[in-house]
Amino acid sequence: MNKPILTIVVPCYNEEEVLPKTAKELTNVLENLLEDGLIAIGSKIMFVDDGSRDRTWELIEQESEQNPFVTGVKLSRNFGHQKALLAGLETAKQDSDCVISIDADLQDDISVIREFVVKYQEGYDIVYGVRRSRDTDTWFKRATAQWFYRFMQKLGVQLVYNHADFRLMSKRALEELSRYPEVNIFLRGMVPLLGFRSTQVLYDRKERFAGESKYPLKKMLAFAFDGITSFSVAPIRWITFIGFIAFLLSSVAGIYALIVKLLGHAESGWTSLMISLWFIGGLLLIGIGLIGEYIGKIYQEVKRRPRFTIEKVLRSPSLSSLSEKEKVRL
Questions:
Q1: What pTM was computed for the model?
Q2: What strands, in cross-sheet order, belong to the sheet with 126-131?
Q3: What is the pLDDT of residues 195-230, one digit of tens each?
Q4: Residues with Cβ < 8 Å from 54, sequence gap 6 or more?
Q5: C-beta of residue 293 within 8 angstroms of C-beta of residue 57
Q6: Residue 328's pLDDT is what?
Q7: How far is CA 158 from CA 152, 154, 182, 261, in A?
Q8: Measuring CA to CA, which residue among 195, 199, 286, 279 is closest to residue 240?
């Protein structure tokens, strides 16, 4: 297989504290891969600024002026991590043979990028980065993550266990992903649906070296709920089933109450009545809320609004415009 043009896509949101080091570390990776003949000239790093409020875009522009490997995409506002990542993938596929996505904090082990490229050259269209363990997570995060993967598995959703968004995708896989037009994006569920030849590479996740996590508990829960409701209608079926069981129980209770009354042993039973009312009322509200969530997603999909808006793109300098020193570097 010919040497591929590789693009590393890095979504960024308020990452001024980590961006300079991230650019340096990823540049070293590309330089080593070029020296070893594993990738072609034209390979690059693409930072995607997801409407950051700090100096993230300013730093991306500075890096692109000083570093021929660095390019950038600036979104017009904050669209969210998944849409920012998709914007980078869509832009990168135009002039790349394969694309690797990775978060800006570099908690994912960049040393396995070499193995990703080797797997691509062996004929794999998708290479998943999979964590060996979750030792760097808190107990709560480990427990909720395990619950989420098991829950999604029971729903019949195909997910790669302990995989986030650290993966390689071939141009063919990216072209196929472009045919998925949904607005509610959950890439961890969408990519396995492509069905191309895939494999996994294990790695150890590190601690974040600077800055704060952009996925606090509230965002993680919202992300998990989006994943569930975007790929399965099972929760609605469960509510229907629970409602049916509640109806049967209330019917039995009604028959029992009628028999007791006919036998002349009727009692007031206010406590049981109120408990039943609160139970049924709560169940109805949950059901209405869940149905509303699905209707809201349908509403978002049928409007067909753009999933993201790109304000500016920084391209790599052409090889002819580079100095002799930079050509040697490439």
A1: 0.75
A2: 198-203, 126-131, 163-170, 98-101, 6-12, 44-49, 70-75, 310-314
A3: 899 999 999 988 766 656 555 556 666 666 666 666
A4: 14, 15, 16
A5: no
A6: 37
A7: 8, 10, 17, 54
A8: 286
